[in-house]
Amino acid sequence: MKHPLFEQHEALLNQAVHAIADRGYWTPYPEVPSPKVYGETAADEGRAAFESYLGADFDFPGQPAASGRVGSERSPYTGALNIRYPRFDVDTLIAASQAAAKDWRQAGPEAWVGVSLEILARLNKKSFEIAHAVMHTTGQAFMMSFQAGGPHAQDRALEAVAYAWRELAAIPTAASWTKPQGKHDPVVVEKTWKVVPRGIGLVIGCCTFPTWNGYPGLFASLSTGNTVIVKPHAGAVLPMAITVKIAREVLAEAGFDPNVVLLAANQSGEPLATLLAARPEVKVIDFTGSRQNGEWLEANCRQAQVYTEKAGVNTIVIDSTHDFKGLTRNIALSLALYGGQMCTAPQNIFVPAGGIDTPEGHLSYDDVVAGIARAIDGLTADPAKAVEFLGAIQNPGVLARLEAAEKLGQPLLDSRAIAHPLYPEAVVRTPLIRQLSTADSAIYQEEHFGPIAFVIKTVDSAESLAIVEDTVREHGALSFSVYSTDAATQLRAQEVAENACVALSLNFTGGVLVNQSAAFSDYHGTGGNPAANAALSDSAFVANRFRVVQTRRFA
Amino acid sequence: MKHPLFEQHEALLNQAVHAIADRGYWTPYPEVPSPKVYGETAADEGRAAFESYLGADFDFPGQPAASGRVGSERSPYTGALNIRYPRFDVDTLIAASQAAAKDWRQAGPEAWVGVSLEILARLNKKSFEIAHAVMHTTGQAFMMSFQAGGPHAQDRALEAVAYAWRELAAIPTAASWTKPQGKHDPVVVEKTWKVVPRGIGLVIGCCTFPTWNGYPGLFASLSTGNTVIVKPHAGAVLPMAITVKIAREVLAEAGFDPNVVLLAANQSGEPLATLLAARPEVKVIDFTGSRQNGEWLEANCRQAQVYTEKAGVNTIVIDSTHDFKGLTRNIALSLALYGGQMCTAPQNIFVPAGGIDTPEGHLSYDDVVAGIARAIDGLTADPAKAVEFLGAIQNPGVLARLEAAEKLGQPLLDSRAIAHPLYPEAVVRTPLIRQLSTADSAIYQEEHFGPIAFVIKTVDSAESLAIVEDTVREHGALSFSVYSTDAATQLRAQEVAENACVALSLNFTGGVLVNQSAAFSDYHGTGGNPAANAALSDSAFVANRFRVVQTRRFA
């Protein structure tokens, strides 16, 4: 008999499995924060729920014994959140996770997937609550917090569950192996197969997209039968705390130990992630963060499957365009969106010294740069509108990088501080653009995370593309954007993308940004360059989270 | 248009894809070396082809520039083979492989799979030739050389190709992403996806099952578009040299650079494998061999996906039986087959001190041990018959281990030397059984590869199973066999198997041995205990051998 939660969500699951093969546009989670979709009271309830967490203890029914309280989150808009999470010792977390595993690992694929899908259904209903939590930890503007932190993150989670199910469903539970023996009776061996999860999955989160980047690993591990410990970034705990709370409610209602999913919050600066990651019981690690931390995990946690998304250097190559206005508008928004604090935000813009061809005629190098600068100025002219996509600077490290970048190369466009009409505390900055030469590779081959872009003048697009290939091979990238009307250059760009193993976006002049990556269609990361060792999501992202144990017996 | 080789073999491929999901008995490659199946002249032609290699240079048309000759193979039956393979420098191999990759990686999944399947079709026709090569390098008897070295190895190869195709076929080549915009026109992005292989796949072979253990990695890498360098064990080059020769013929006929598949032969003792494995261009490594070498690769070759099959400690737990004669006969053959030189051969036999229940009444511990010893004596009484399953000892290291084991614990059954009626040089030995106590874990928790078994007297089967769980978790195993008529003990055995992540064989008293692992049905290894970090085969074995690069453009 099917698990009731599996049965309840099976139709959706089948659609998702179809979607990952079809890869057209599909989502079950509407991205519009509209009362028509989410209910007339959803917005107010979400805000109220968020506000109820502020200045209070955040506990999880059924949680293990805590050894104190932690909490150091600050809203980039309003200052300290003063939420106090339980502090669990590493041994406590591991023991609780292992105890919870006993029943969970026996429950089987349909239960794992059914529970995962019910958690997602409830997360979707709480999209407003999570949006406020994302906004007031990451500094994203509200609309992005809702979309990227809510429905789009849920999409990425469902996508991971769909991949997991596709693999799990391909393994039969039993078969008769009947080998003919000529005139004699056949040899018959009865076989059964059982999916065995690896152990504890550890999800190490980031402070900019805690749900969008955290959900794939969480749901991939959970839907393949592992227990999960979520170690959010100390600066962005609440979105994952709410997620864990909801997951635990579903688990408990379904008769499982809620400690199947645990939150491991820490005070900023405490080394909880590495202590957990080094434990032999931790068999899967999903990490989003710095190159340094990611490489430490890869090198030191060989007991575990380690999936990392680290730093990268995203690039735009401008060769020619059929729509210069669209190009500048699109690039301006790509650079401005959430103050460049996206792992997919472009940083380096290569422009040929001789300028580019457009439908309006040839434009000089200076014309191209001026066009982009003008587009950013226009886009950010009205503070009230600008803050709705710029968001706020998440942490002082980003601001420090921005200030350091103001001394690099030559000025092209200064970053401006914008006063937020509603939140006087918020640090809002427009994109900085500096000009570099191709010789400045020590600068432009490094990630400068934040509202920082470089224009690099090249001899021609061939040189631009050659530099991109080297840079991505050596330093990684999650996005690569090319503007060209020339078929040969487009082909060469595809070749570069394939050689360096990075996704290519061609001639993005309309309403989609290179920063954006849609679940069920866009692979986020390729797993083939240093920016990430896995893609979100594909079979490789899920297939090693479980193993199969066979029993065979004579019939 | 489909690649002609893909079209030619598509029906077989579809059957194989069905078989990996069904997991009943299936094979397209008959295991009987019969003239009715393989043709009246196949046996003679195979022998003649094998003999033509002896004492001669073995070259590959189209090979890169060689820097000399290597060759140190000895037949365990007839002595030095005196085959001289070309020596290629590491730089030469890497450069040739990368040059060959240019066209191969662009050819796409249908070409990769079609070429792989054509190679397999031709390998099957050469099964006699390969059987002689396997026999005269590994020391397997002829029948095993034919079956395990020929059709069964081809099965494992086809299985890997089927998994690869299942993953490759799930990735669409193109889609339109059409996102509704309410009353406005939808946003349309045209997307294409291209499978990009990782780079060079390195296959590092062993000297006991060069094809059976080598083919899965070779064919998994090849059918996902990688180029492959095969580094066979210096003691068993010929079977893989013939394989590489055939692969290169197919590649050349299909219009590809034959250096897509290269043989890297070395003189015994030269460190060619590690030099190749450390190269940054090598992105996938498939290894079968010692724990020490496997762990070195895992720790040091982090630029590559590393799949290892290493040492393990395989176990039989005897609790009770419905057929004691069947039990003793089955165990005797399991121990004797190819002189225990199988990665799946049992080593430790746990027997309760109080003896076991059988249909003929209770048998004491001594009765059980005597029954097994008697079965081995009976099985090996006739030298002419015995050599047909004992085969010959592959190398002096095995003999040295056997001699060392003769001093461990207490004697239960001595190993006897058997004179081979046809090959006076062959070292043929029957299984040794020594008695240990549970306190001798330093002995029995280590692999003693060869015709060496230990009987360990335990308090009861609960103790036996507890020791097995610990041993397999810490030291790994590829096989685990339990004899019990008791439902609770069987359940506990399954629990142990799941906890330690090892395949379980229950009550093997008939014509199938625990050593045997059938492609399309039995997962060989689980990838979840220290004996192997991957299973042959599953999705995890293939999914990380390629990546997907996407191009999206505005419509």
TrEMBL record, chains A, B:
> Is Transmembrane helix a UniProt keyword of this protein?
no
In its UniProt record, a GO molecular function of this protein is: L-glutamate gamma-semialdehyde dehydrogenase activity
- Where does the Aldehyde dehydrogenase domain start and stop, copy by copy? 89-502
Q: Name one GO biological process term.
A: L-proline catabolic process to L-glutamate
Matching entries from Pfam families are given as:
Aldedh
The transmembrane segments are: none
Q: Any one cellular component term from GO for this entry?
A: cytoplasmic side of plasma membrane
Q: Which UniProt keywords apply?
A: NAD, Oxidoreductase
SUPFAM superfamilies attached here?
A: ALDH-like (SSF53720)
> Organism's domain of life?
Bacteria
Which InterPro entries does the record cross-reference, listed alphabetically? Answer: Ald_DH/histidinol_DH, Ald_DH_C, Ald_DH_N, Aldehyde_DH_dom, PaaN_2, Proline_metab_enzyme
Q: Name the chain's protein.
A: Aldehyde dehydrogenase
Specify the species: Crenobacter luteus
